[in-house]
Specification:
The protein is α+β, with helices and mostly antiparallel strands. The protein has helices at about 15-20, 60-80; strands at about 25-30, 35-45, 50-60. It contains two helices and three strands.
């Protein structure tokens, strides 16, 4: 059966109330091994010596690549609508790699 002949599968996605509230993160740390990627989303408070992981997502290399493509597509749409995001300004919060 070719891709064009396959039936389209529709998935109903449910979100629990607690998950739907989301969590705020201003730092992400990404690690990987040969089988999976781990994304830690962290909230760093200004002037605080410690930070806490708010959420951890563990996923496969194929899913991380799809996520990257989706993020790139959405970021392009965002910047087309609202303008370029400046990541070089001083008020952008913690920088990757400076979380020790």
């Amino acid at each position: 059966m070719s891709e064009k002949q396959q039936k389209e599968v529709k998935i109903e996605i449910q979100v629990d109330d607690e998950i739907a509230q989301g969590v705020y993160a201003n730092l992400a740390v990404v690690n990987h091994n040969d089988a999976e990627f781990t994304l830690d989303f962290i909230f760093v408070q200004p002037q605080a010596p410690r930070a806490k992981v708010r959420s951890r997502v563990i996923t496969s290399p194929k899913h991380i690549k799809r996520l990257l493509m989706a993020l790139e597509d959405n970021l392009k749409k965002y910047e087309d609508q609202f303008g370029t995001i400046d990541v070089g300004s001083a008020d952008t919060g913690p920088q990757a790699g400076k979380y020790h």
